Amino acid sequence: MASVTSISKKEIVEALRDNPEELFEEADSVRKKYCGDEVHVRGIIEFSNHCCRSCLYCGLRCQNRAIHRYRIPADEIVQIAGEISRCGAGTVVLQSGDDFGFGHKELSNVIVRIKKDNPSVAITLCLGERPLDDYKAFKDAGADRYLLKHETANPELYEKLHPGQTLRTRIKILEYLRKSGYQIGAGNIVGLPGQTIEDIASDILLLKELDVYMAGIGPFIPQKETPLKDYASGTLELTLKTLALVRIYTKNTHLPATTALATLSPENGQLLALRGGCNVLMPDWTPERYRKDYIIYDGKVRVDVEKAKELISKAGRTISRGRGDSFKERNEKAESVL
Ligand code: 5AD
Q1: pTM score over 0.85
Q2: Which of 48, 57, 150 to mutate to test the pocket of ligand 1 (most atoms within 8 A of CB)?
Q3: Which of 45, 51, 58 to mutate to test ligand 1, by most ligand atoms within 8 A of the CB atom?
Q4: What's the mean pLDDT in 83-111?
């Protein structure tokens, strides 16, 4: 097993260094075979920018006093979720900083209300690290999926970038979430200061090993109120190559063309990602008065549902009307029949 892993890692490193054209073509055909032509639209509500963490790259870090902190009231979150559902998006993503000011009871109640009003919608949570009992409570309330990005698979770099946190804990939480019945998502940042090509190969291998249902992968973009403000952004090419390789190696994982790609390259970042393996878009439904303070990185562009539809048609694809659940079980069953 060890040697297979090391060969794969070497191969991945080579592919990350190589000319990408063939890689993108292969990723596109793997996407077509395992995921089809439908693009899944997930509506995001960034409902709180409070955060108790100190991640060196993120503008929401608690040391940043330059942003106004907000929490969207529960009634308003439920109302926005209704708008997302009526618009035909099959998933509502509730995203925030690691905010314990939003208690588990209050959040569970929001989840119950969204499900009651919109029974056909799936709920993805992206709330960071919380006590394990909270995850259980959210699952019981009706949450379907949990996105907890591993950010980097290099444990030393992870600890440098996330003071007081460890990669081990993060992976343990992901395993706990899966056992609790969530469809789990992870993902990494490409081009982090101090990150090597080998580290990115490890990210790809970790995603494969975790067998995630989705992987959120985007470039590092500096934020001016953080310690990493003077570092360069990750590149478009390396991010697209990473996405393509994740598609090729993991086959049926849901892969969003992220907003960070649109920010890095507004003309064609997301379009190239859709043509190089991606099959998900996550337009933002956070009302403007809050959104202006959700500054994880500088210059964050807004990808709204109209922009998402435009991209899907430009890429020659169709919009999914379903929830866009995990492909894993379905394909495993299909493969076992063959
Ligand atoms: N550049 C790119 N991605 C970032 N994130 C936070 N800060 C940055 C940054 N400066 C990403 C992290 C986090 C998600 C909410 O945003 O991956 O998980």
Answers
A1: yes
A2: 57
A3: 58
A4: 97
